[in-house]
UniProtKB/TrEMBL annotation:
InterPro entries: Fumarylacetoacetase-like_C, Fumarylacetoacetase_C_sf. It comes from Chrysophaeum taylorii. The keyword GTP-binding does not apply. This is Fumarylacetoacetase-like C-terminal domain-containing protein. Pfam families: FAA_hydrolase.
Length: 323
């Protein structure tokens, strides 16, 4: 369904060359160790994208070469990650918060960016680690002072974001092992590996402003978040317009747009991520972003799970199913 045929003519001897484009890409290391962009075709294989730069209408040209996918990587390498807090009303109510008047922007550091299927490493000081499944948008170019009407021109496409959070430093909470006054959004969400991004990048050409997409988060298969991007308070155009006001947002910056109700911190009783858990964040038309959770102990090194079972077809090929 991703293939579009384009006929190219060159010189007087018009010839027909079949050129294929894809509206969704993955980045991966193939089984011979070469890093590539590709369009996933099933069975663990991808057609290789021939140019990193998308076409003007934001799709990617693919050739005839098909290779085996080895390791799945983030589909883009963002300079840093921005995120929006409190952008779903059910999450705001559940956290006893007040709806912000403008998008509440915070940074997730560049070293928080993390590949699909790789272990999220929880440091010892994070005693209340929590998941947040989110829609991520990817900037197509450097953008500054963009109106809402022009905002989608700054969007290349969409990914799934996992905004892993250390509630300990985020909440105003002086309970055991949670020193400080809370409000440490950037600190509590910037630990290394705390921004998994993937598994595919799906073009804005296909998804538009990305409304109406089912978003679900599962922990060890247990459905914890079940919402739709239609419930975003500030949608994609508003976020892009606001955050580019007076500020250049660089090309390939990823913006995680906020999480709906159902995080572990608001469960009764609160249920934080455990060593060995597996988190799946699913967004319709994009795919499943899966990562295992492991704790880092200064005494014992990595505990928990560093490997997770998967079938790439399950992560990438049922983009419309809600299991
Ligand atoms: C929200 O407020 C209610 C009532 O005061 C309280 O029972 C609940 O624990 C609070 N929830 C959070 C996440 O702070
Ligand atoms: C998003 O796109 C849909 C479909 O094109 C449109 O109906 C809706 O108004 C858009 N939302 C915003 C906030 O622009
Ligand atoms: C998830 O949300 C959809 C839409 O509101 C609903 O139809 C479905 O029953 C929910 N699934 C579960 C398991 O709660």
């Amino acid at each position: 369904m991703w293939w579009i045929l384009v006929f190219a003519f060159a010189g007087s001897a018009a010839f027909e060359e079949e050129r294929t484009t894809a509206d969704a890409i993955i980045r991966f290391v193939d089984t011979t160790g070469v890093e590539r962009l590709g369009a996933y075709v099933g069975g663990g294989r991808a057609r290789v994208v021939t140019s990193e730069e998308p076409t003007p209408d934001k799709s990617w040209v693919v050739g005839d070469v098909v290779v085996e996918v080895g390791q799945l990587l983030t589909p883009v390498s963002p300079p840093y990650v921005l995120a929006i807090g409190l952008n779903y009303i059910d999450h705001i109510i559940a956290t006893n918060s007040t709806a912000p008047l403008t998008p509440a922007v915070f940074f997730k550091g560049s070293h928080s960016v993390h590949h699909p299927l790789s272990p999220i490493v929880i440091p010892e000081i994070s005693t209340k680690p929590d998941y947040e499944g989110e829609l991520g948008l990817v900037f197509s170019r450097d953008c500054k002072d963009i109106s809402e009407a022009d905002a989608l021109d700054c969007v290349l496409g969409y990914v799934v974001c996992h905004d892993v959070s250390a509630r300990c430093y985020q909440n105003e909470d002086d309970a055991d092992n949670c020193p400080g006054n809370g409000g440490q959004y950037s600190f509590s969400k910037s630990f290394d590996t705390h921004a998994p991004i993937g598994p595919r990048l799906v073009s804005v050409k296909t998804l538009g402003n990305a409304t109406g997409l089912t978003l679900q988060t599962r922990v060890n298969g247990d459905l914890r978040q079940n919402s739709t991007t239609s419930s975003l308070i500030f949608g994609v155009q508003q976020i892009v317009s606001f955050m580019t006001s007076g500020t250049t947002i660089p090309k390939h910056t990823v913006v995680c747009t906020g999480t709906p109700d159902g995080v572990g911190d608001t469960m009764d009783p609160p249920t934080y991520l455990q060593d060995g858990d597996v988190v799946d964040v699913y967004i319709e038309h994009i795919g499943v972003l899966r990562n295992p959770i492991t704790r880092l102990s200064t005494k014992h090194g990595l505990l928990g799970r560093t490997h997770v079972d998967f079938d790439l077809d399950d992560l990438l090929l049922f983009p419309s199913a809600t299991a």
